[in-house]
Amino acid sequence: MSDETSNLEFQPRAQGSVMGFPAHEGRPGALGEVHARPHPLVEKPRVLIQLSFMTEGGSGVDHAVLSELSRRLGIAAPERHARHHAMRWGKGTLRWERHTEFSTYLWEGPLAENGRGQEDSPFGNGFSPPGTVISGIRLEIRKWTQASEKLIAGFDPTSLCYSLVERGVAAIVTDFRQDGDGLTRMLVLDRGLTPASTGALSQRLIDIETYRTLAMLGLPLALTLSGRARRIEDRLAQTTLEMKAAETRDSQTLLADLTELAAELEADAASSLYRFGASRAYDGIVTARLGALDEEPVQGYDTWAGFLQRRMAPAMRTCRSVEERQANLSRKLTRATTLLRTWVDVDVEKQNRDLLASMNNRARLQLRLQQTVEGLSVAAVSYYVVGLIGYVAKGVSIFGHAFAPEVVTAASVPVAILLVWWGVRRVRRLHSEPAKHPGE
After folding, report:
1. Which of 145, 156, 137, 159 is nearest to 189 (CA)?
2. Region 144-153: what's the mean pLDDT?
3. 302 within a domain of the structure (yes/no)
4. What is this structure's pTM?
5. Within a domain: residue 49?
6. Distance in angstroms (rounded) separating the CA atoms of residues 104 and 102
7. Which of residues 330, 354, 378 is at a domain's end?
8. How far apart are CA 424 and CA 436, in angstroms?
9. Do residues 315 and 245 share a domain?
10. Are residues 81 and 176 in the same domain?
11. What is the per-residue pLDDT for 166?
């Protein structure tokens, strides 16, 4: 091999180009993401204390906390839009990470001989929490000796989980109980792990406790919505029975009831959509972390995976069951509403048909009345016209007797009737034609 530097040797390069070619604007972020959260290199003996806070106030609250901690240390605060940050604190390191709805503060420091380790942590007096605590963990990493193995007896035997990992090189112990400080206790007994392996194992164990707690947040909501879904189911069944009674059915009232039920159900589904989705995602993370442990069972003890699956699976099934019930109820309400709307439309069409029939009958009566009035009008007008002709004939007879007045009057009767009838029809035709606008 030549003395020149090998082209396989890692050398930092500018992210703006690749072999002189312009790089995509998203490439630096994509490449850096896999290195953004490296596992800490953890020596033993060591203690890790992590607090997870629900941060409804957003990232600004975390930034304020970190800025205050940085000010106390006399160092620069992280950028406002940063999602993770690390700083030295006492003899250990404080790591912060921002997640979607919570943030974590992990302090890793030396474990004293007396087993205490939080005296140097930042979580003492003067620490301003960014929100309410959802998870608290105390993880101790000790060398596996007969003395450290006796610490297992300090855990609750009714929920003790004890198994081997990393091909038997380490043991992990917990009872998922909380100590006097409210922290879930965990113990790692190590007889040969590298600092990198210890850091990766510690992160998996902490993730399991953090995400299993977050996953269980969906259970209280599921239990509450289950009762409300049952009430909606009962009301839907009652409404469906009333829909079958055609004689006494009030379609408009029933439709209003169904619309109210649908609105209530959709409000419940919307309020639970995020929480149930988050619980599924968190449960998936827990399952992945448990699988990555690759536990070897210790006779007489539960494994972490076995214990949590028995406890968490029913809760997750309850959440899924409520989601499915909501979806099924939504479909049933949609079908019932569609059916009832069809009945309402049929009733409206029937009412419209009856109204049109009534209007047609009224129009026929009006036509007959109009024809009768026209006939009477022709007779009356003809009577007066013939009378006028009779008066004229009598007056003309004074000058001669060429025609008798009675004959003239009698002869004018059919002519008068015909002319009056024609005139009435002419007037009616003029009134029945649509009016023409000027210029048409």
Report:
1. 145
2. 92
3. yes
4. 0.74
5. yes
6. 7
7. 354
8. 21
9. yes
10. yes
11. 93
Radius of gyration for the alpha carbons in the chain, expressed in angstroms and rounded: 47
| pLDDT above 90 (res 301) | yes
φ, ψ of residue 122 to 5 degrees: the values are -80, -5
Query: In 356-436, at which residue ranges do the beta strands (DSSP E only) sit?
Result: none
The amino acid present at 353, given as its one-letter code, is R
What is the pLDDT, as a whole number, of residue 403? Answer: 66
Q: Decide if pLDDT at 293 tops 50.
A: yes
Same domain as 382, residue 347 = no
| CA neighbor of 140 nearest in space, from 160, 118, 119, 156 | 118
Report whether 183 contacts 105 (CB < 8 A).
no
Provide the domain count of the chain: 3
Rounded mean pLDDT, 341-370: 83
Listed residue (5, 9, 104) closest to 52, CA to CA = 104
Are 223 and 349 in a shared domain? Answer: yes
Mean pLDDT of 331-336: 90
How many residues are listed for the chain in this entry? 440
User: Domain range for residue 125?
Assistant: 37-192
**What sign does the CA torsion over 372, 377, 380, 383 have?**
negative
Can you say how many angstroms the Cα of residue 241 is from the centroid of all Cα atoms in its chain? 31
Does one domain contain both 350 and 370? no
Nearest to 96 by CA among 117, 69, 74: 69
Distance CA 326, CA 321 (A): 9
Whether residues 226 and 279 share a domain: the answer is yes
Last residue of a domain, one of 306, 324, 354: 354
One-letter amino acid of 329: L
Q: How confident is the model at residue 434, as a pLDDT? A: 62
